[in-house]
Amino acid sequence: MFEYAPAPESRSVVDIKPSYGLFIDGRFVDPADGGSLKSVNPASEEVLAEIAEGGAQDVDRAVRAARKAYEKVWGPMPGRDRAKYLYRIARIIQERSRELAVLESLDNGKPIKESRDVDLPLVAAHFFYYAGWADKLPHAGFGVNPQPLGVAAQVIPWNFPLLMLAWKIAPALAAGNTVVLKPAETTPLTALLFAEICQQAELPAGVVNIVTGAGETGRALVEHDGVDKVAFTGSTDVGRAIARAVAGSRKKLTLELGGKAANIVFDDAPVDQAVEGIVNGIFFNQGHVCCAGSRLLVQESVAEQVLDSLKRRMAQLRVGDPLDKNTDIGAINSAAQLARIQELTEAGAAEGAQRWSPPCELPERGFWFAPTLFTGVTQAHRIAREEIFGPVLSVLTFRTPAEAVEKANNTPYGLSAGIWTEKGSRILWMADRLRAGVVWANTFNKFDPTSPFGGYKESGYGREGGRHGLEAYLNV
Amino acid sequence: MTATTTSARSDLSELGRSETALRTFLHGLPGVDQVGAEQRAAQLGTRSIKTTAKAQAIDLAIRMVDLTTLEGADTPGKVRALAAKALRPDPADPSCPHVGAVCVYPAMVPYVAEVLRGSAVHLASVATAFPSGQAPMEIKLADTRAAVEAGADEIDMVINRGAFLAGRYAEVYDEIAATKQACGDAHLKVILETGELATYDNVRRASWLAMLAGGDFIKTSTGKVPVAATLPVTLVMLEAVRDFRAATGRQVGVKPAGGIKTTKDAIKYLVMVNETVGPDWLDPDWFRFGASSLLNDLLMQRTKLTTGVYAGPDYFTLD
């Protein structure tokens, strides 16, 4: 046997303070009513830091700072000068990427190989990409002189804390808006380190404000009168509440919500690569991915063979310490999320689906869930309809391309889909019929700042990324 | 594999009798997606192998080296020195294992055999008009027999790439089968020369063809064309031997050759073997490295691990 010795990334590269204030108007300040939350390492349940809980007064202060910065500095600034700041931020992110990656893995629980090789490169790429647009907005296809909206309120989730921050802040700033961003309450640390990066880049005060807190803080932010634009990524339930709250106001809204994506494998698929794609589709980031390929639709004639290969591959997944460079699956982000995954998987078994996991030792402390596969799943099962947001794959079969399309579309969501076939014409035929914002062919979970991302139906509206992503932050 | 269900298991040995059956079978194998295969190989390359795992990997890699010299300038003196090194790679450290085999041209086999006699190091010889394979069949077979008679217990043959690329699969099959017969008890390694096959689909088909025709090992390259062993090519070949064993019950070895020069490279291959086909192949009987300069880098890293410091290149023998 070839046992890999522990290969932990050093956590000494990152300096976590015992407590953090709110980042408002260019400096860290204490919250008005002194509320606080604790951010824990989900792999060990160790408290990492105390985080300020912003109240309505703090949100108001942050929005006013953003308004002032928008009117006096950032709005009037020529695009080429805004670009300089964004390029500077992008370069600092690259320089400090190891520190940011370690902090992300500590706070979120994701494996260091993902924060190092996926999250951080994409974060820097997003800032570089939108920096390039800042002085070229008249050529973006939104009129000769498109204008920013003003102050953007941005609420982001815990699954890709820094990447979602980049998706929100980079286009907003490039287009000339200022922002107040609320990171998720379980993963605020990289956003606070980003605030330090804004200081290091000498970004004018008030252009970026970070207000930490939980649901109430987010509600105060999106409902604030001084906000011109609301951008939210998170659950469909919260997205609905936000849509109700901003209805009838002047606020422009984009939502990126849940998903229950179909990953469709045809009988002529490149099997070994399809299996990699299935694994990447559902086990990447512990399945905490809105566009995860959580429903495997496999053609019945090859189902047995694909499942055998998939099980063999799943047995190779290494679950454990997120900071170990050889870890494939890290910790579940929170006790609450773990409970949700457990509830749905128990429902899956109770409703008659067959559950399988490879032999897998889970650490004693922290929040963990073994990679899990359900076969014999039908469209009527809860695990085929509800977003689990964990390392749990539901396997369904189909007989014909038309049936594959019908099953793939038979969900209230429509964020992404995957197609695996060697036949190019079938890829195009399928892509025309799948009601999903992103369709991947012979790959999955591929992201690029130049490519728009967003949903159909209850997966939300508006697009992030690419030229299309600018529209959400321009008065068009 | 789509083409190898349980019911097909008994029929595989009959495939070589018909050009049509062979073609249908090989073209029925699942395709390889180039981007996906390269991505998987790259991901496996990011594994971090440290301390005890590294020490274990280095010793295993040394035992898997086919220490090779295939030059026009090879002389009895040169190959004797190489054989001596194969037996005792690190004269300063008796705990250092010997390599898997020495690999030379047929004319050099007798001189190597003298040195290796009585040892556990195998003697491999290239044959079949290596490296091009462009010679009449009887000459290729005579080449093989001569090498075996001179003392080689492993034969590295080249496939007829011209026939393969022209779609004459039965011809390639027959040549491999005939060479296998000419080998007698010697092990047959079949060199696919993947750099000339160009696509991963071809690599998968050639791998199956070589295994169906009786090859004991499939090997990537001669080392004589610009593109030699790569991680993705080796991945596709490992998947092929894994699926072949599942279909037929027979285990076939894999040998990447050419361009593997550093310990870091070798460890990436071992990680790939470990996570693609598993521990059954983590043995010199089932996985080899065709290499020359790799051995000294392995020795250097081995010394670094035991002593904590790097020794200069002059502390390792050049042969």
From TrEMBL, chain A:
Task: Indicate yes or no for the key word Oxidoreductase.
Answer: yes
GO MF annotation list: oxidoreductase activity, acting on the aldehyde or oxo group of donors, NAD or NADP as acceptor
Q: Which UniProt keywords apply?
A: Oxidoreductase
Query: Where is the secretion signal located?
Result: none
| Superkingdom as given in the UniProt entry | Bacteria
Task: Please give the family membership noted in the entry.
Answer: Belongs to the aldehyde dehydrogenase family.
Question: What is the protein name given in its UniProt record?
Answer: Aldehyde dehydrogenase family protein
Native species of this protein? Micromonospora radicis
Taxonomic placement: Bacteria, Bacillati, Actinomycetota, Actinomycetes, Micromonosporales
From TrEMBL, chain B:
> Which principal EC class is assigned to this enzyme?
lyase
Per the UniProt entry, the Enzyme Commission number(s) are 4.1.2.4
Where does it sit, as one GO cellular component term? cytoplasm
**Which keywords annotate this record?**
Lyase, Schiff base
InterPro entries tied to this protein:
Aldolase_TIM, DeoC, DeoC/FbaB/LacD_aldolase
For biological process, the GO terms are: carbohydrate catabolic process; deoxyribonucleotide catabolic process
Keyword Membrane on entry: no
The record lists the catalysed reaction(s) as:
2-deoxy-D-ribose 5-phosphate = D-glyceraldehyde 3-phosphate + acetaldehyde
> Which pathway does it operate in?
Carbohydrate degradation; 2-deoxy-D-ribose 1-phosphate degradation; D-glyceraldehyde 3-phosphate and acetaldehyde from 2-deoxy-alpha-D-ribose 1-phosphate: step 2/2
Q: Name one GO molecular function term.
A: deoxyribose-phosphate aldolase activity
Q: Which Pfam families match?
A: DeoC (PF01791)
Family recorded in the similarity comment: Belongs to the DeoC/FbaB aldolase family. DeoC type 2 subfamily.
Q: What is this protein called?
A: Deoxyribose-phosphate aldolase
Species this protein is from: Micromonospora radicis
